[in-house]
Amino acid sequence: MPQPIVIVGAGLAGLTVALRLAERTPVTVLAKRSLEEGATAWAQGGIVGVLGSDDSIESHLRDTSEAGAGLVDVQVARAIARASPAAIEWLVRQGVEFTSDPEGPLGLHLTREGGHTVRRIAHAADATGKAIHDVLLAAARSHPNIRLRERWMAIDLITSRHVPGSGSAQCFGVYALDIDQGRVETLPAAAVVLASGGAGKVYRYTSNPDTATGDGVAMAWRAGCRVANMEFVQFHPTCLYHPHDRTFLITEALRGEGAVLRLPDGTRFMPVHDSRAELAPRDVVARAIDFEMKRNGLDHVWLDATHLGAPFLKEHFPTIEARCRSLGIDISQQPIPVVPAAHYTCGGAVTDVRGRTDLARLYAVGETAYTGLHGANRLASNSLLECVVVGSACAEDIRAQPDAASPPLPAWDESRVEDPDEQVVISHNWDELRLTMWNYVGIVRTTRRLERAQHRIRLLRKETDEYYSNFRVSRDLLELRNLLECADLIVRSALRRHESRGLHYSRDHPNTLAAPLPTILVPPTRAAAPKRGS
Prior knowledge:
Helix content is 36%, strand content 16%. By secondary structure, the chain is α/β, with parallel strands linked by helices.
């Protein structure tokens, strides 16, 4: 029996690859928490489809490029836009029920979000991600060639560094932790696909689920892959501000339908900051909110949708209406308290449009990867599209490769470790890291703040690496280790960018350079496999 393809992550990117491959190839999908958890299921807005008669590939390309502030790879963006109709048609064939409109293209209702010049967002009310994820997960569960391993976390990639004499740099599998049993297994693979999402949990306030700890980016970096544009962390402008729910996203589509941002006295402030007002790209809106909060000493601002009326809000935004109502907020009668929160990691492991990384047999798809599509700022709803298009191309590339078996792989070494004596080190370092990143590496940055963050991160990494070397691993420890790796990459990238562009705004470098380049970090050469196979 051929070795399986191991996919790290069970969101849209990972499930797309799995379902595309499973007809001919055995697939193992690792999910470190429940299979239902993950960023895909939290996505409210929708997925881009260049479908309407008023739309075109070039129009979408212009909107993507403008949002990406000069750093979008035009060839990649054009290829992904061209594939958008096929991507949506594939989802429809899988059984995804998008909101319909008999007069719309493909019978779909299209909405509009910030940065888009036309309506081109296919959606399932205001819970598109969940609608897509539920369908694909059900298909994966019923497929005989897909093995879903819930509560399994990849620790590190097994590469040529671990297997002397194995030839050129390539990936042979992963070390993975069975979280419930507390044991580590060696999983050989014909290819490995990193689809574990972004690193939003590196910040104190985020719209991301607990799974977003940068695992794939950190593993790719440790394995020797280049990482790019990590300084561009998208802060979603409108996350619900409430003591009992600090991660609930208020979709951009609500502003697309006419909701406006106001100060406590009712003043609408976005037109002062940008002619596009509430429909400006996310970085513009987030900075405007941050500016007004600091200027007025506010904990949050207000998103006012009351003029849209209760029937419209219940029909088009049932999830938001219900969640807010459960917290005592009637959005048809009162504005919603909102605050910016870390939302999307635009950078990641460098790949091409097929998901290929710097290592043979290693792929990265979705938020884990940097394809060049998002540039310095992701255009709304391009992320789900990228997952499907690149995920499909990734599966096609894997199928085209000759059959390859892994050589005998070394087992995970636990001969010199013991059970942890105190877990407080992990929880303390986790909290300190997230607060440091929020205070020093947030929406507005300075060189001094970045240097302070870098100093603290180095100390935290030293403590955590020592802990990792001496004690048996746990999910919390592995996530902290990966977050520290990603935090270091974010700060190093930010210090290299001596300008303000897109999501990166520096008070010390407020101007924009005429000839932008991506920030590409190259890992140091590692002559031997580090301790414990990582």
